[in-house]
Every structure is written in C-alpha cells, then in structure tokens.
Amino acid sequence: MWGTKRTMSQPAVTYELVASQDKARRGILHTPHGSVETPTFMPVGTVGSVKGLAPWELKSMGAGVVLGNTYHLHLRPGEELIARRGGLHSFVAWDGPMLTDSGGFQVFSLAALNQITEEGVAFRSHIDGSKRFLSPEESMRIQKALGADIIMAFDQCPPADAERSMIEAAMGRTTRWLDRCIAALDSPQQALFGIVQGGIDLELRVQHIEEICSRDLPGFALGGLSVGETNEAMYEVLEHTAYRLPSDKPRYLMGVGTPRDLVEAVAQGIDMFDCVLPTRNGRMGTAMTSEGRINIKNARFAEDDGPLDPECPCPTCTTFSRAYLRHLYQAKEILVMRALSEHNLWYLMGLMERCRTAISEGTFDQLLADTRARWPLASERAQK
RNA sequence: GGAGGGGUACCCAAGCGGUCAACGGGAGCAGACUGUAAAUCUGCCGUCUUUCGACUACGUAGGUUCGAGUCCUACCCCCUCCA
Questions:
Q1: Which strand ranges, in their side-by-side order, compose the sheet holding A14-21?
Q2: Average pLDDT over residues A63-70
C-alpha cells in the first residue's frame, strides 16, 4: 500500500542519469512496463506491428520501447476495439514499454489529405477517404484508450522547406495544442511528452524549447527534424538545442534515423530515437552493416557466401549468406524482408549499446569518430 | 497432301508505308527511402559515345517505293484444322 501510494505520486516515466561524457549521456528510462537503458532506439510499429517482426524477435534483440501510431490505430482497428482487448500492450502482445505517436506526424506526411485549423486537423482517411478529425483532446482520448506508457503531444510538424512564418505558426499552435493536451490528460499512469518545433532556425528552436519545456512534463522531444533538411542542418540544430532540454528528463529525437544521425545526436545528449528506416530499408533490400550500407539486390552479391555483416551476431547474419539473401530478394520472398529488417534493428540496437558502453568508459569520442568514418554524409562522400 | 494462322529486341507482346531503335508488360541493372498511405518509388535497359550523333536491327533472300517492321515474290521454320 505504501509502495503503491509512493508510485502513484511519481510520474509514470522517469529518467535516471547513469554516466556522461561531454554532452553525451547514459541513463535509464523507468516506465510502468519496465526500465530501458538509454540511449535507446525504439522500433516503429505503426499499425500495431513492427513490420515483419514478432514480439519475441524484438525481445531477443533487446528492444526496449516499441511505438504505435494514434492516427493509424484509430482508423483501424479503432482504439475502442483495442481497449476492449485490454489495451495496446495486450492486443499486440508486447509486455515492454510502449509509446504512441500522437498523429502529429500525419499532419505532415498526409498533408495532401488534411486541413489544419486552430481546433485541430481534418483528415481524409487514406484508407477509405472518410472524413476524420484529430485534435489535441481527441489524440489524448485515443492515446488513453490505447494505453501506451509514453504518449506524445499532438503537434504540427511543418516540412523542412516551410517558410519562417509557417514555422512560427506551427510553433505557436504546437504550444497551444500542448496545453490542451495537458488539460485533457487524465491518466496518471501515462507520461505525456511535449514536442519542440522550430525548423532549422536556431533562434526559433531555442525560443520554442523555452516555451515547451516550461511545462511540467516527464519528457521532451525534438520534432520537425529529419523532414527533408540536410544532415548538417539537423546536426547544427541538435548542437545548439539538445543540451537545453531539461537534463533530468528523457530527451527524444523523433524520426531519426541513420547510424550516423543516431551517434551524432547521442553526442549532443539525446536519449531516445525512433525511425522506420531499419524496417523500411530492410523491406526494400538495404542493410546497415559494419561495412556501411549494403544493397543486397546488387549483382555482386549473387555468389557471395559470406554473412550480411561479418561482425553481427543476429540470426540473419549467423544463418544466411549474402548469396541466399540476394536470391530471396530477387525471388520476392517475404523471408528476406524479415531477415533484413531483423538485422537492421539488431544493428541499431548494437549501435546504441556501444554508445552506452562508450559513454560509461569515456570512449564515446572514439565511437563518434569511427561512426563518422563508416557512415559518411553524402557531401563527405562527394568530397572524397 | 489440302486449308488457315503466325515468326518483332533476353522473354511475352503492340505495330498494318514515313513522326520506329520500335507502345506495354516481365526479366535484368542501378538508385532513393529518417515521429510508415511504402513487400514502395525513380532511372537505365540493341551496339559505340558523356552529349550530339553514328551504326546494326523486326525469320531468310529478293523486289516495289523518295521511303518498308509495315506492300509483293520465293524460300525456311512453328501452330491449328481437314485428309
């Protein structure tokens, strides 16, 4: 009873700092469904499934938090149906921590299908064309029904090429919507994270951080990045903003990313990431490996008997040859999509683990240098 | 033996006098993918050339025509039906 009471009075999700090196930091994210070591990469399971992978496979690679998406799950199968089955954890058979995105990203990615007003966003369902409406209150209601440990504020995510005036408008709206999310929230076992916008303008970013982080929330995210800007621009934003996020709360960089992006962001003090890249690229035939990016479709792998990544301990790499994986891709066999997706996630899980270890051991700058060498940016490749 | 249909690039296939190096598919080759409308999308795909362009091509050999994958003749193959 005492324990229960104490837990009830604490935020659902807390951050515990374990070690740091310069701005990079190692910690533990405590949630009602278990604790996760950070920095951490969170696989994306938009419609209630990390595409191609079963929960036990995610478990075996050490996945911590898994994502779901408010917009997609609202359209299908509907949050009420999920709630009747005990919530998202129970429905998708993931007993670890979960996070649901608010639908804010769909304001960006489905821009052609929606209309934004102060009240919220009118969507045209991409599934059947029906009219839908998402607002901060509606997003909170849906996310409460889904029951994830971490829920995201409903924000407006403008594209990278948006005009300054539009960025500013999105910032103001995102702040007002955040306050409405806070007001609508009535599930103490869920942790609401605020989202910072501001494009790649450093002043606007800093301004919006001050706005968003003045709210008492258990975690904060940088949104509106990796939406079309250059990597260099994103790094600059991270360098000038990540450290300004509250140090006693988890910092989440949404929608990132590539191995290089992840390590660069860890260097700036980011703790959490999510990205569709490992699974999408896996389905499309590209793999992240210790030798850099590999396109398994390439003819040069037709008779390559070696593993996808010689340094990787994952099931794909310890079981299949490149020649076989390429054959599976050519033959359009679904196994290769699973195998590459699983490998890519293992790669990022391993990368995050190396970050944590390096931070503890004070060797993170070496890892950063190594990552920069292995994963050059397009501009760096062009120079070379 | 008779009647009919057909042979087009790696494969399937359109084409019915010029605008055809030849529509479409497939295969092949390469690229893209960052809070997932994605097992998707883009480019190349006769040879040589970065481009312009040149050359070789529509079963084979002739012919008609200013011009033929497209028309005519012969021949060689394939398929269907009748004997």
A1: A14-21, A24-31, A34-38
A2: 98
